[in-house]
């Protein structure tokens, strides 16, 4: 069928033609926004899930929802080895700028921007390496108000963040709304920053201040947060973003097709679900290839079968390969051992998805190495976001079907 009219959108953060199966999350967030605007206590939200399940897309949708409620919003993508200070300043700047036109006292906005600027300009405190601030540390936020002093500029991120977020929330209170800061890839924040963020959320919730953080990250994000502050388990509301069930996966395929007056035969949908396992990225990838190959509506199972190798080839490059290439030879060896053991465990426990968590001790045994000698490879893979440790002493792939992919790769 006409590839120009192909509605499907495989790709990182690509808005799907139909956001299927996330009604509950959207409803929950509506209630959160309403409650906070009325001064009711609410917890910040954390979305967790594997790669490609749609965390970024959902985060962006929640942000639109907040904007529709006239909230101020800003978004950050955390990166390993990058401090939170500059990005959070930029996100709050954006959020407050959205609220400013509705504020009756411009001097209150200016006072806040002065604090924001001081916060942003606060360089890494001397004594940590003692080196002169690098160019990027002298970054000037586009704020044409002089930096104030004595607030949010101590250099201690925990103190400063609490003060800054409290002040931002006060601006939102003035205009009768709230501020939401969205943080993607949140597991990549440094330990100090995570701690500071938890402390700030804790303080804000005690004050009943209308500012929330909405985070998204890999399945071990809850562990990262509770390692920073033990109270974080009670501080955040965790929502596991998972693969789509059959009804939602069918809807993700059928609703956009219907708008183009194209239909699927039932058998085609059966096969597409079998191939995608309901993982949103795969739903889009198989949907896209199938559309391009199908000569006419309705789309048949035979069309899916013809198109599948192309979808798989594209996934092998774009989804799996790009990640696999980030690993060193030693890390690849580690993951191969994981993939083999996951298959065995999966078969033994009769799981359909053969990417089970694997005990690290078994990996060491399979590779004939001491567990401690494999720690660097494991830690590097966690840092690269390829594997995670959900339970102590085990590791699993962050990428769905990654084990299956590795088992088809020549060593
Ligand atoms: N609810 C949904 N219905 C249909 N398709 C979806 C849905 N959510 C996401 N997708 C599609 O899945 C793909 C992956 O989405 P997204 O990039 O948001 O995942 P992610 O969880 O952020 O992945 P990563 O961990 O790699 O960042 C995109 O192509 C998107 O269009
Ligand atoms: Mg993402």
UniProtKB/TrEMBL annotation:
<keyword id="KW-0408">Iron</keyword>
<dbReference type="InterPro" id="IPR009056">
    <property type="entry name" value="Cyt_c-like_dom"/>
</dbReference>
<keyword id="KW-0067">ATP-binding</keyword>
<keyword id="KW-0349">Heme</keyword>
<protein>
    <submittedName>
        <fullName>ATP-binding protein</fullName>
    </submittedName>
</protein>
<dbReference type="GO" id="GO:0005524">
    <property type="term" value="F:ATP binding"/>
</dbReference>
<feature type="region of interest" description="Disordered">
    <location>
        <begin position="1"/>
        <end position="20"/>
    </location>
</feature>
<feature type="domain" description="Cytochrome c">
    <location>
        <begin position="173"/>
        <end position="324"/>
    </location>
</feature>
<keyword id="KW-0479">Metal-binding</keyword>
<keyword id="KW-0547">Nucleotide-binding</keyword>
<dbReference type="InterPro" id="IPR041664">
    <property type="entry name" value="AAA_16"/>
</dbReference>
<dbReference type="Pfam" id="PF13191">
    <property type="entry name" value="AAA_16"/>
</dbReference>
<dbReference type="InterPro" id="IPR027417">
    <property type="entry name" value="P-loop_NTPase"/>
</dbReference>
